[in-house]
Amino acid sequence: MLTLKRLDENDAQILIDGAAAKAREIGVPMCIAVTDEGGNLVAFRRMDGGKVTSITIAIDKSYTASAAKKATHEYGEISQPGAPAYGIASAIGGRLMVVGGGLPVAAGGEVVGGIGVSSGTPAQDREVAQAGLDAFLAQL
Amino acid sequence: MLTLKRLDENDAQILIDGAAAKAREIGVPMCIAVTDEGGNLVAFRRMDGGKVTSITIAIDKSYTASAAKKATHEYGEISQPGAPAYGIASAIGGRLMVVGGGLPVAAGGEVVGGIGVSSGTPAQDREVAQAGLDAFLAQL
Amino acid sequence: MLTLKRLDENDAQILIDGAAAKAREIGVPMCIAVTDEGGNLVAFRRMDGGKVTSITIAIDKSYTASAAKKATHEYGEISQPGAPAYGIASAIGGRLMVVGGGLPVAAGGEVVGGIGVSSGTPAQDREVAQAGLDAFLAQL
Amino acid sequence: MLTLKRLDENDAQILIDGAAAKAREIGVPMCIAVTDEGGNLVAFRRMDGGKVTSITIAIDKSYTASAAKKATHEYGEISQPGAPAYGIASAIGGRLMVVGGGLPVAAGGEVVGGIGVSSGTPAQDREVAQAGLDAFLAQL
């Protein structure tokens, strides 16, 4: 039997609130998703003006980051033409996201979930996801 | 050109908070989803202990209620064997939900969104969704 | 943060071996799947002669039982025409299984995974899943 | 009428055991799938620590290798921009995998199945899949 840690409902709100605060600061309304360490959705918020396409993209960025334990922008690097993971972007019915904005959430050296952000540029999405992660880590 | 009303990010939180309060009162952790009048997800919360299968079911109950402007338990009645909408449960890749727990959210006679709840019995899901709706209507 | 228990790789083999032994005893080659408490696949075996359609059915029975914390035959009862969960069978893209043969796996009062069996009659599938569960519980 | 050879349940376990031994040796827990010559799943194992995203990826690598009778890393080469199979990575709903780690399993000049591995780098995945294949060939 394995014993493992997983972020809870309250942690998810801290992650989303932290991300949303940054999104407001940079003036880009975002879709923000939080998944547990098994890739299953815990919480989601579409800020007013967040894109409809970004609903699924944010959820899938979070899914990828938590379930693969890797930031989506790292997949972006290793999946370029000629790179080792080229072609992975369409795996799992297209759920495996290689665009920046998905980050694993770790605590005590263990991945306990993920956060995914979408609606801005990938750089903005990543900045906002990082702000959510920072808010979570600051209160651990 | 159409002008329409749609629940916003803040309304979605009021709906979810109202539903979650009732879920805690009856002791059943729930998945709670809110969609806009186009059926697109605005907010989601999986309470600690909410079922993983209920993530999709709650979202799809809310999708059905808002996009079809009809409570899912009403679809349950008209989709029984021999009834006019028999077979509709598997429509839209199974997204059209006919199990209770999805309610349209109306304001001023207009559907502006929906709420979907899953993890308890259909009666519990419906009670919790109604509590979310009541909390929303109380502050209009 | 939540702390939870999950069956491991070795537990999954015990479950499958126990089920396969019963399948051989009754002379029905089976597809046998084991998922973790989040519904994600841990192990699968198609015995020689197991049905190809049963690959997905066994996996989805295990997914349903573990992620909804309910045996699939219980869903069969509450989803009959006129019953409260009528229509749930096509939820989650048809992954929610209401045919017997999926059982949650619990240890210490906590669901830690699931087992799903398919290729025989639902009664045979359920008997074989139960044998897997019994083998697991016997060695706890 | 065709007469064909297909790996059996026991062969699948030899392939998985051989791959898992190499995965332990290199210290990377893997998802390992074995399919028959029709691309249908025969056996699967997620080692403790194997990635959740890799469940589907391992199964689809094996599916691709067995059903197309071609190693997935070979598809990686011919699907680069400008190459003849460019764009094939998203075929079959994204199931056609072009990332290394999927190998056809042949016996007597005939493809009888496939093995797919995921959770490490593509090079590690390929090495582990090859170890499974070697274990199978060694006992023929």
TrEMBL record, chains A, B, C, D:
<dbReference type="GO" id="GO:0016740">
    <property type="term" value="F:transferase activity"/>
</dbReference>
<keyword id="KW-0808">Transferase</keyword>
<protein>
    <submittedName>
        <fullName>ATP:cob(I)alamin adenosyltransferase</fullName>
    </submittedName>
</protein>
<dbReference type="InterPro" id="IPR052517">
    <property type="entry name" value="GlcG_carb_metab_protein"/>
</dbReference>
<dbReference type="Pfam" id="PF03928">
    <property type="entry name" value="HbpS-like"/>
</dbReference>
<dbReference type="InterPro" id="IPR038084">
    <property type="entry name" value="PduO/GlcC-like_sf"/>
</dbReference>
<dbReference type="InterPro" id="IPR005624">
    <property type="entry name" value="PduO/GlcC-like"/>
</dbReference>
